[in-house]
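## tool: complex_structure
## caller: assistant
## args:
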Amino acid sequence: MLPSLVLLLVFLAGPIGYCVYYAFTDMQLTGAVGTHFVGFRNFTRAFGDSDFLNAVELTLLFVVGSAVIGQNTVGLALAVLMEKASKPVRSITSGVVIAAWVLPEVVAGYLMYAFFYQRGSLNAILHFLHLPQQDWLYTLPILAVCLANVWRGTAFSMLVFSAALGDVPQELVEAAEMDGAGPWQRLWRVTLPLIRRSILTNLMLITLQTLSVFGLIYTMTQGGPGRKSETLPIFMYQEAFNDSLIGYGTAVALVLLVVGALFSVVYIRLLNVEED
Amino acid sequence: MAVTESPRLERPRPLPSASRPGWSRRGRARAARTGVNTLLLLFSVLYLVPLAWMLLASVNAHADFTLSVPHPTTENFRHALNYDTTYRPMLNGLLLCGGGTLLCVVCAILAAYPLSRFRSRLRRPFLYTILFSTGLPITAVMIPVYSMFVQVDLIDSMPAATLFLAASALPFGIWLMKNFMDGVPVVLEEAARIDGANTMQVLWRIVLPLMWPGVTVVTIFTFISMWGNFFVPFILLLSPEKLPASVSVFTFLSAHGETQYGQLSAFSILYSLPVVMLYLLLARRLGRGFALGGALKG
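## result:
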């Protein structure tokens, strides 16, 4: 017990406490001698900073688009469809989806960079289908990183939902079928209500994961072009290291941490409900 | 559980499907299955394209963004397989992640045992804190960690980075480990205690041998997540000769003005290989959905 406590206190609780302290100072990388307590100035500055607000907006887009809508829905759809598919198809699909998940973050970023690149595979496919092409990483970088995150992260939701669907008692589904419910009605009125809790916990977990994605976006676009794909983690990194404003960067980190903490609390409440 | 809240089925329904004209029930089921299969295969192809591109580019001497290999070659791999490009980053990764994993697993075992076995008033709050910290975005903590490490002169130190990696993986490790430990029956322990074994002896001789599968899962899982971690070594380590593969991929991308996509793909494959193999081991051993049981069940 003791070693864990020491590790956790020194390396997790410590930095978090530090984070709270630094967020209220004007610490800079250059000449850290003149670090002063500045109260809430970092926060008022952040909320008046159009680049910060831009990052907040992009983070929201990224989390809602790639986690809540993308990974969650695609994962559910895959899990539902795979129940009905034949065995070889099921293994192929889960194989490729999980492969994308297992690859290290940076490799996934590199592959997605190549996929969305102007002369990359996506445009080749679109050309083949006679659809309009785009320079994705330049015109729609946030969409590109969202789709990349869906590509990489869907396996998690798929596994959660497959496990949940496996627990749904078949008698109930069959009873609904006997009563004449079509496939959609069975899904909406029987299956989904039964796995409601899995859906909620999954949503919490993927939201938390997506909130802190850094490597994927950094390898694909570095937040650019301009600031068009600069989510909060990237913004925080740029402020702290490229602009040497550690205090300001930490204030942003604290905002991120608080948002994460709120989601974490909701997640625990959900688990708690399940226990009772 | 939720089964009791069965949906309302008593509403009037249309007549059973058998009375509808046209396809038989079985014929429709078959058609539906074909449709589902086609849809999933199309989806898989879309998923496969980037992976296939990497595999093809790695054996293509003049790789660009198209999916083609005129003459397969091992040139890219030969270029990538040298000390500076591949062996050293992999070795660094092994030191960082191996050390971090070992530390994390040992600490997790020691912390999980009292949490799983002894009731105390601190147990619940502690468990909630652990669960709470598994949810915190570690990315956000990196900047204060950086400033902290600068002040105590630990930047660019591999042992310090290892310690931090271990600490950041610890909450989830403890949580998983505790759930596995709960599955070990207490009866055997009591017998050992009557024979005069102390707590440590019980833990190492009785409990652990019974939960090797669980320990393996936590170990492999921790290692995989550390191996893929980019941000932590990216922030905490500076010298090129200390960087693990996750960061050196990146220097590869930006350092050479003209990126050699073939060599980069070859390197990416080499770098991904250990975790893919570990994952296969894990999946074969425990079936699908292995680690999620621990993450999602209270």
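## assistant note: Confidence is low (pLDDT under 50) at residues 1-21, 288-298 of chain B. Chain B touches chain A through 98 residues (CB under 8 Å). Handing back to user.
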